[in-house]
């Protein structure tokens, strides 16, 4: 039962460890991690139309237009590998995105929602140390020196500059925190303490998923 298809939304402020935990869970379960931030960064590096439109917004730490991000997720969820489950990382970030996601997944079993809670002081410290791949834009997991996907060198994210980090944390409080309230009353919502070592957070997430198995259809 623990290995039944999991469709999970990883919530939490920037720097909570969503990417690291989503990557780990996706690997363990053999399901895709869908990170809108990674997809957008790849679009910026590839200079696609979406990338060109998103670049300045992302560098300023603000949110990319709902229609653009929803279009990305709609397309990604329609890929065959997402039918076996997925981990969404960085989406939804607005109520419109959350409501649209419900429509997109209504024919599947209920979403599992995991909110990773971390105090703000810890977030700033973590974000200022984080690195991404200079070639494909993927966020590097902690402890690696080259991109696990393409072997590219690692650099600091342009939006992990202290001023932009502050803006992103404000945007989170203003626009995205309400998503937690949107989901909180669902029987498949769980909150985990993200201010502990990576392995313990991963164990708490696994326990959270196991505990909602009974309430999923
Ligand atoms: P992340 O890697 O999740 O921190 O995302 C990096 C940046 O990409 C964010 O600061 C936003 O500018 C943009 N972004 C990623 N996901 C979304 C989303 N769901 N809605 C709007 N903008 C997003």
List keywords for this structure.
about 220 residues, alpha/beta, Rossmann fold, five-stranded parallel beta sheet, two-stranded antiparallel ribbon, globular, binds adenosine monophosphate
Description:
- By secondary structure, the protein is of the alpha/beta class.
- It has a single domain, classed as P-loop containing nucleotide triphosphate hydrolases (Rossmann fold, 3-Layer(aba) Sandwich).
- Helix content is 47%, strand content 13%.
- The strands form two sheets. The chain has a five-stranded parallel beta sheet, with helices on both faces. The chain has a two-stranded antiparallel ribbon with strand order 5-6.
- Helix 4 (66-77) runs parallel beside helix 5 (95-104).
- It is globular and about 40 Å long.
- The N and C termini lie close together (12 Å).
- It binds adenosine monophosphate.
- Adenosine monophosphate (AMP) is lined by residues 14, 36-37, 40, 57-58, 61-64, 69, 90-93, 97, 159, 168.
- Shape estimate: globular
Q: Which series of helices and strands comes N to C?
A: EHEHHHEHEHEEHEH
The averaged pLDDT comes out at 93
**Name of the CATH class:** Alpha Beta
Q: What's the CATH architecture? A: 3-Layer(aba) Sandwich
Tell me the structural class.
alpha/beta
What is this structure's SSE topology?
Elements: E1 7-11, H1 18-29, E2 33-35, H2 36-45, H3 49-59, H4 66-77, E3 86-89, H5 95-104, E4 112-117, H6 120-129, E5 131-133, E6 154-156, H7 162-184, E7 189-193, H8 198-212
Helix pairs in contact: 1-8, 2-3, 4-5, 6-7
Bound molecules: adenosine monophosphate (AMP).
């Amino acid at each position: 039962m623990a290995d039944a298809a999991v469709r999970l939304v990883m919530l939490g402020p920037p720097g909570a460890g969503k990417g690291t935990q989503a990557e780990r869970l996706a690997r363990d379960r053999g399901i895709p991690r869908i990170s809108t931030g990674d997809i957008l960064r790849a679009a910026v590096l590839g200079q696609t139309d979406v990338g060109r439109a998103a670049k300045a917004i992302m560098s300023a730490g603000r949110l990319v237009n709902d229609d653009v991000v929803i279009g990305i997720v709609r397309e990604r969820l329609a890929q065959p590998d997402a039918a076996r489950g997925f981990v969404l990382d960085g989406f939804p970030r607005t109520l419109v995105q959350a409501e649209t996601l419900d429509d997109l997944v209504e024919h599947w079993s209920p979403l599992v929602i995991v909110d990773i809670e971390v105090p703000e002081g810890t977030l700033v410290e973590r974000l200022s140390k984080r690195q991404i791949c200079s070639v494909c834009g993927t966020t590097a997991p902690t402890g690696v020196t080259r991109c696990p996907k393409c072997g590219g060198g690692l650099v600091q994210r342009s939006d992990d500059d202290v001023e932009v980090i502050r803006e992103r944390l404000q945007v989170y409080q203003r626009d995205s925190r309400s998503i937690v309230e949107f989901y909180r009353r669902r029987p498949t919502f769980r909150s985990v303490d993200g201010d502990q070592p990576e392995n313990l957070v991963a164990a708490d997430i696994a326990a959270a998923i196991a505990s909602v198995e009974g309430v999923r259809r």
